[in-house]
Amino acid sequence: MERFWKTDSADTPMVLVHYGKLIANLDDMAEFAEASRVKLRPHAKTHKTAEITQLQRERGAIGITVAKIGEAEEMAIRGCANILIAYPIIGHSKLKRLLALAEQIQVSTIIDSLEGAQALSSFFASQNRRIDVYVKVDSGLQRCGKKPGQEAADFTRRIADLPGIRLIGLLTHAGHAYGASEPHLLEKIARDEARSLLDTAALLNQAGLQVSEISVGSTPTVKISGSVPGVTEIRPGNYVFYDMTQVRLGVVPMERCALRILTQVVSRPAPDRIVTDAGAKTLALDRGAHGVEGVSGYGLIVDYPAAEIERLSEEHGVVKVSPADPIQVGDLLEIIPNHACPVVNLADELIVVDDRGLRDRWQVIARGKVK
């Protein structure tokens, strides 16, 4: 595979993004959304940058999704005026911040508990305002959300008329797709993802309650669940870069991966071992996503795919290599990470390159915004 970095020197470790590959990924998903007649509301947790958010909006995204209020605040400052916070907002301090955002931009959030719904309702009603909400449905990840079908429908009916909130839809995230071992299992998870919402919506409709948005997420499933009639919105995140987890799942070939870590060999203490300056604080410790371990090592070294990044300490990557590999201290290596999202969150900036070399530097503005 062609290397992203063209020169012999760099202040490593660096997170590189190939502009051409990024644009191809953005265009591809935008074209899918348009052809499927669904709204594109990408999750910004993957890239956390104003520049990529703008590129997504230019390609038809109606807004963005984020995980935390801190991410929404950073994006709102930079002109993003339609944001879904796909996370339960619990606690008075966070409700105050949510209100401040709602006074500036169009913002929505999720609910999956009566306690959370009542707190949200009481707070916004006291301010003579209403906040748009989706009910979170658990399509199989077993994280947040009500069970699809009767439980989710009963909950939705119970909270629909609460003051201070406006029910706009149902939402789910099929993150358990990252554990799929075969393509047919991935397809089943994706179809179940859509059906979990559509079946719940059908029960609501029978009870005289309609919701306008049926929102699905997850990059591995989005082109299946997003094509099911009745789905109105998709929220993929990882698609902007892709990574080795997506390659393992068969979502894309390795050539579609737009993000790499540039690292330098700092030691070769044994013929079969090298050490790089990209450790856990650069590569993260994921061997997959959502706690699923589906790949070996901690990323793929582009020029030496048989080498294995066996272990990481904070600032060291320990790599098993063949004694015949001509790797020397000072060499630059490129790594496609297992999971791009935490890698970006660990970086101050993304170094944007194209086929001619360095193109730009993009600040990771939402880095560490976990509140």
TrEMBL record:
UniProt keywords, alphabetically: Isomerase, Lyase
Enzyme Commission number, as recorded: 5.1.1.1
Keyword Lyase found: yes
Sample GO molecular function, one term: alanine racemase activity
D-serine dehydratase-like domain: residues covered: 258-354
Group of enzyme by EC: isomerase
Family per similarity comment: Belongs to the DSD1 family.
Protein name: Alanine racemase
